[in-house]
Amino acid sequence: MAHEQVPETVKDVQVADGTAVVTLTGEVDMSNSPGVHQTLVEILQNRPDRLLIDLGEVSYMDSSGVGVLVDALRRMRVTGGKLGLIAVTPRVKSVLQITKLDQFFEIFPTRDEAMAR
Amino acid sequence: MAHEQVPETVKDVQVADGTAVVTLTGEVDMSNSPGVHQTLVEILQNRPDRLLIDLGEVSYMDSSGVGVLVDALRRMRVTGGKLGLIAVTPRVKSVLQITKLDQFFEIFPTRDEAMAR
Amino acid sequence: MSKQTGCRKRALRPCVRLTMPSMPRYLAMIRAAVGCLAGQEGFSDETIDQCVLATDEALSNVIKHGYACSPDGGIEVILRPICRAGRTGLVILILDRGRDTNPTRIGGRDLCDLRPGGLGVHIIRSVMDKVQYRRRGGGGMLLRMVKFKDSASARPDSSGSSRLASGTN
Amino acid sequence: MSKQTGCRKRALRPCVRLTMPSMPRYLAMIRAAVGCLAGQEGFSDETIDQCVLATDEALSNVIKHGYACSPDGGIEVILRPICRAGRTGLVILILDRGRDTNPTRIGGRDLCDLRPGGLGVHIIRSVMDKVQYRRRGGGGMLLRMVKFKDSASARPDSSGSSRLASGTN
Ligand SMILES: Nc1ncnc2c1ncn2[C@@H]1O[C@H](COP(=O)(O)OP(=O)(O)O)[C@@H](O)[C@H]1O
Ligand SMILES: Nc1ncnc2c1ncn2[C@@H]1O[C@H](COP(=O)(O)OP(=O)(O)O)[C@@H](O)[C@H]1O
Fold this sequence. Notes:
The complex is a heterotetramer, with two copies of chain A (about 120 residues) and two copies of chain C (about 170 residues).
Chain A: E1 10-16, E2 19-28, H1 33-44, E3 50-61, H2 63-78, E4 82-86, H3 90-98, E5 106-108, H4 111-116
Parallel strand pairs in A: 2-3, 3-4, 4-5
Antiparallel strand pairs in A: 1-2
Helix pairs in contact in A: 1-2
Chain C: E1 16-21, H1 27-40, H2 45-66, E2 74-84, E3 87-96, H3 120-127, E4 130-135, E5 141-148
Antiparallel strand pairs in C: 1-2, 2-3, 3-5, 4-5
Helix pairs in contact in C: 1-2, 2-3
The complex binds adenosine-5'-diphosphate (2 copies).
One adenosine-5'-diphosphate binds next to helix 2 and helix 3 of chain D.
């Protein structure tokens, strides 16, 4: 978003068997969270059964990033789908805890564990 | 130097069999290079045969740090001792190259290789 | 440099001033600067994270609410290490010339509601030891935040086991 | 934010201003800020390192020579992304109110000599694409440095294989 050589925050999107896996990377803040939001909205237009967001490479997230996760969760609930977060780093987890949103998300330590469900 | 909880730049000093091994860590700049200089001067007062400076954990060094290395080299030469640098990171090596000082230092990839000499 | 250590040398700890345009792309740079300075003051990783997060949230709010996302505003961040009653801390001031608001109306919302938005002020108040909004003479807002190094950190209502929420340094 | 990408949007790339006291302890913070900003401009790791190193050397010189190591001076660093003839770059200005010098007398020494000191200006001129010292009206010096993103980097007289010395991005 910000510049061509800056690594994109949305690193990868995989869709298979009704499950979409989105891998984010780097620092998620107001400069790139609208782009992440846009990506998720587009993915959800295909109404996947499950959306998994891999946060293992996300070193920082502020409330604008958390807001994107919350918005995705609400959209999944409307269509009856499930949302899971993968490999939430301690720093990102803290932000979810401070905002008391950790209770709303299903969190998996690894991608394999998320896929096994 | 700067503050009690900031990791000291001189992480470790070991002297045995006429060889002094000094391990530096972090970023070496004008805020801490005088402290490093002081430490080296004190060590050299005991006239070791060899001074090895381990730079493996030094992520940044500016000309004030390079100046400290050059000063140590000059002092070692006066007393007929040897100075070697260990595990010089690419970033630090570049500064030595730009200042054309790499030619003056004996550089060892690892501590073991330095000790084996 | 050793002269600067310790509390009595307050005169030798003047402030650092960072001025950025009201554009989100500069948030990362300010975070890097705040993190580095808090680290040098000897703050724990948790406390550093808290200063960084609060600054980011406050700047984002200035961009959104103070400048309505227009990129041509200016925001000033002033960082000042302090020592009060034997406690080392960092004062973070955020000044803008955007639209001002009644400080009493800047507050966190009820978190039971699952919806995006309305989280920033709650985060700021949770992680910082002192938070004070003021209208500036001449227009715009001034936010003064203080974080102490040995701070008990997140307010008791935040769960205590997390990296940012826990204040044990 | 996508509006900011590309060269024509120069008006949307205003400057960032950092003001620090003339104390070495603040060098790390400025390095962090410069590194972050250069990274966001899409500079390669090598070019980022060069901008950071040159800024650090220039600030160290202001502290040493401009302010004679007195801690009560102020130093301003202005960072401005630019676009000239299709080349993206970063302008780094360093302003002080210390003792001024004839710019022609600020030069690197002969490097054949093995001695500490006298390396900073050589480094600055080696790693930056443009370097210009000027006396400021009202006292003090202004240093203007430019680094281009696709810069051929270190001058031909520096060996090319190293991280900082090589400019291949
Ligand atoms: N810098 C500011 N200037 C004006 N109003 C602000 C400022 N910061 C916060 N506010 C007010 O406080 C409210 C809560 O802010 P916040 O918790 O960050 O949530 P959000 O920004 O998502 O609305 C905002 O909606 C706004 O009305
Ligand atoms: N900001 C400055 N103000 C005044 N003089 C300067 C400044 N920067 C450099 N100089 C002059 O240029 C010389 C070379 O600087 P440098 O290469 O950094 O080596 P050193 O600082 O070790 O002398 C200095 O000795 C000084 O005379």
